[in-house]
Amino acid sequence: MSEVIDLQEMRFPLNHGTGKIPALGFGTLIADLPATVAATENAIEAGFRHFDCAERYLNEREVGEALRMALGSRKISREDIFVTTKLWNTNHRPERVQPAFDGSLKKLGLEYLDLYLIHTPFAFQPGDNPDPRDSNGDVIYDNGVTLLDTWRALEQLLEGGRCGAIGLSDITLKELLPLYEAAAIKPAVVQVESHPYLPETELFEFCKEKGIVLLAFAPLGHGIRPGLLEDPVVLSVASQVAKTPAQVLLAWAVQRGTAVLTTPKSAERARENFNIAPLPQDAFEEINRIQTRQRLNRVVQTGVPGFIPSVR
Ligand SMILES: NC(=O)c1ccc[n+]([C@@H]2O[C@H](COP(=O)([O-])OP(=O)(O)OC[C@H]3O[C@@H](n4cnc5c(N)ncnc54)[C@H](OP(=O)(O)O)[C@@H]3O)[C@@H](O)[C@H]2O)c1
Predict the structure, then answer these.
(1) Could you give the CA distance from residue 280 to residue 237 in angstroms, rounded to a whole number?
(2) Cis peptide bond upstream of 226, omega within 30
(3) Ligand 1 centre and the CA of 39: distance in Å?
(4) How does DSSP assign 239-286, residue by residue?
(5) Which residue from 21, 63, 205, 288 has the highest number of Cβ atoms inside 10 Å of its Cβ?
């Protein structure tokens, strides 16, 4: 097996359930609905088998449409793909968890999910409005439920047989520690922003020690320029290994042992972002030595992810 195949096909075992998560994942945070279907189809065609969805992206139906088309045409089978979705902040009350899970499954048109994440540790006012705000425009939080209450409801989902594994997203190590200690079933995956400007080393070390997969979003720095895609070290490594800056950043993320999410929209970029190969050790270490530090997404402080579609 060539090295190229290794990173593309790498799967990490999960600490509960039987599934393995493909290291290279396709993220579905795409504002435009027809573009969601097309981009998901392109991703499948390019070889992506891990799909990261969310109730809050308001496009589970469209992602499901593309997945079902591929499953129907027998291009892929359900066992080949790994599908995640996330519980939104307005559904943290335990009695709202199962209905939210069922609603996502129905929209995706699937029989089961491989992974279900709590999208953020912040509970918002429960209800149908995903973005509840007061008259000043400030988010209305819900103090009547704890993260552990919500986690316990996710633990129960595992008993139903339609949820393969559970985890968290947009959480800091400080918040993760008490949840981890109290949890009967430990999180299998933690999804956070991570890239060479935000390596999240402490959180990553904790996850490795506990067998939790760290799933990095914004590996390309959300494509913001100037930024990671134009970082001089990344550019120099790209020319050294004859790969694009995006391929270098994705390879670095998988090579260090994190799973990763990227959202190419065109067929060409989907092929580019899937076509990654290991970096030589010296190039890998050069990227490790980048000193710039930058967090792009304030979701861990507020529960409001950036780059998210407004209410449709
Ligand atoms: N848990 C959370 O709160 C959270 C927050 C954010 C994201 N996520 C997840 O993470 C996924 C990944 O999102 P991301 O923004 O982090 O993705 P990303 O792949 O780091 O960035 C996407 C941006 O990079 C550009 N891009 C993609 N491939 C490129 C390439 N080969 N060369 C140059 N530019 C390229 C895209 O441009 P074009 O649009 O022009 O193609 C887009 O602007 C999301 O879809 C979502 O599933 C989770």
Answers:
(1) 10
(2) yes
(3) 12
(4) HHHT--HHHHHHHHHHHTT-EEEE---SHHHHHHHH---PPPHHHHHH
(5) 63
Ligand 1 centroid – CA 92 distance (Å): 26
Cα separation of 94 and 91, whole Å?
8
Between the alpha carbon of residue 154 and those of residues 98, 101, 122, 148, 295, the distances in Å are: 8, 9, 15, 10, 29
According to DSSP, the β-strands at 115-118 and 82-87 are parallel
- Residue 246 in contact with ligand 1 by CB distance below 6 A: yes
Would you give the DSSP letter of residue 17? S
Q: Residue 82 is encoded by which pair of tokens?
A: 């790994």
pLDDT in tens, the chain (312 residues): 444 458 999 999 999 998 999 999 999 999 999 999 999 999 999 999 999 999 999 999 999 999 999 999 988 999 999 999 999 999 999 999 999 999 999 999 999 999 999 999 999 999 999 999 999 999 999 999 999 999 999 999 999 999 999 999 999 999 999 999 999 999 999 999 999 999 999 999 999 999 999 999 999 999 999 999 999 999 999 999 999 999 999 999 999 999 999 999 999 999 999 999 999 999 999 999 999 999 999 999 999 987 777 766
Residue 197 CB less than 6 A away from ligand 1 = no
Q: Is 217 in the pocket of ligand 1 (CB under 6 A)?
A: yes
Ligand 1 mutation target, pool 55, 252, 262, most atoms within 8 A of CB: 262
Gap from CA of 29 to ligand 1 centroid (Å) = 8
Burial class (CB in 10 A: 0-12, 13-18, 19+), 275: middle
**Which residues does the annotation mark as catalytic?**
57
Task: Return the best residue to mutate from 56, 63, 217, 304 for the ligand 1 pocket (most ligand atoms within 8 A of CB).
Answer: 217
Neighbours of 239 (CB within 10 A): 11
